[in-house]
Each structure stands twice: as structure tokens, then as C-alpha cells.
């Protein structure tokens, strides 16, 4: 079902807010990782590890799903379609993969936050946990998605090509 132009603008606004918001939340998470790596103050390190959990559950996970859902709406509600253009298909795959990796990583985040919450715990146990790898690669993937979104590189899938031929066969009034 195609959206009206007004509805399309509104939905696109939401899509951009949540998707780019997701990127912002990843950057905030990376700031916490940076704090654990650079600070010598135990208070700072402990609270940075603790704060990773609410950022994950209240920002990263909801924004990832919101980005996916609004992205599906933008695809299915416009002539772009979901499987017709390589850039849309690539965005879908990268977003799904990033979301799945995020979900699998939530266990680690909760594990780390639990250790940090115990005032007598030894924080050196957390070395290596809460590292740069997952959020760092996640950020790079999200930046690739933004570039795909804005440049929209040409390229029809086989399915998209057939759909285009079908449309051309219908006589235009
Ligand atoms: C992190 C994930 C995502 C980011 C950062 C993102 C970002 C953006 C941005 C900035 C635009 C506006 C581009 C423009 O109008 O010039 C856009 C449009 C669009 N996005 Fe996404 N997006 C994401 C996920 C998705 C997903 C998962 C899909 C599809 C399944 C999708 C489908 C679309 C479509 C079809 C448009 C064009 C809408 C239109 O022409 O009205 N996006 N996206």
C-alpha cells in the first residue's frame, strides 16, 4: 500500500530520527567504554560499566527495532519496495545483522553490570569485557547504512527488474 506524500514525509521523519538516534546511542556507549579504558578512578570505571546496561535496554535495543520497523514501512509503503533495489536490500540485511549481534551482546552487558554493581568486586576481572569491538564495528556498519541511504546507489535486483518491465507493459493513459 503506497503512502500519501504527507504520510510518507512524516514516516520518513520518524525513520531518520530513530535510525540516526541509534547511531547517537552507540556513540554514547563508546564514550562509556572509553571511560573504562582511560580512567584510573574506580568510581568512574564502576559507574561507566553500570550505565552500559540502561543505555542498552532503554536506548540501543528499542532504537534498533524502531529503525527496522520504520525502515520496513518506508520500503513497503513507497515505490522503493523491499527487494527491488540493492541499496534497500543491503540496508535490510545490515540492520537485521546489527540488531541480532546487539541482542546477543546484551547478555555480556548485563553480566558486566552485575559485577560492577558489587562494591567489593574486582574490576580487573572485567578487562576485555565491555571492549571496543562490538560497539566499534556496530558504529561502522551503521555509518555504511547512512551512506547507502543518502547516496542510494543504482542497481536493480532481478526481481526489481521484472517488476519494472511489468509496469512498462501497462499502457500509460
Ligand atoms: C540503522 C539503520 C538505518 C539508517 C541509519 C537509515 C537511514 C535512512 C536515512 C537517513 C534516510 C533518508 C535518505 C533520503 O531520503 O535521502 C532513509 C531512507 C530510507 N530508508 Fe532507511 N535507514 C536505516 C534502516 C532502514 C531499513 C532496515 C530499511 C528497509 C528495510 C530502510 C529503508 C529505507 C527506505 C526505503 C528509504 C527511502 C524512503 C523514501 O524515499 O521516502 N532503512 N534511511
Describe the model.
With 173 residues, the chain is an all-alpha fold. It has one domain (5-169). 76% of the residues lie in helices and 0% in strands. Helix 1 packs antiparallel against helix 4 (133-151). The longest helix is centred in the middle third of the chain and has 35 residues, at 42-76. The two termini are 22 Å apart. Bound molecules: protoporphyrin IX containing FE.
SSE arrangement:
Blueprint: H1 5-38, H2 42-76, H3 86-117, H4 133-151, H5 158-169
Helix pairs in contact: 1-2, 1-4, 2-3, 3-4
The structure holds protoporphyrin IX containing FE.
Protoporphyrin IX containing FE binds next to helix 1, helix 2, helix 3 and helix 4.
Structural class: mainly alpha
How many helices? The count is 5
Major sheet: none
Contiguous uncertain segments of 5+ residues = none
> What value does the Rg take, in angstroms?
21 Å
Number of domains: 1
Beta-sheet strand percentage? under 5%
Shape: elongated
Mean pLDDT: 94
Please estimate the helix content: over 70%
Extended strand count: 0
Task: Give a short overview.
The protein is 76% helix and 0% strand. The protein is mainly α and 173 residues long.
Q: Which keywords apply here?
A:
173 residues; binds protoporphyrin IX containing FE; mainly alpha; 76% helix
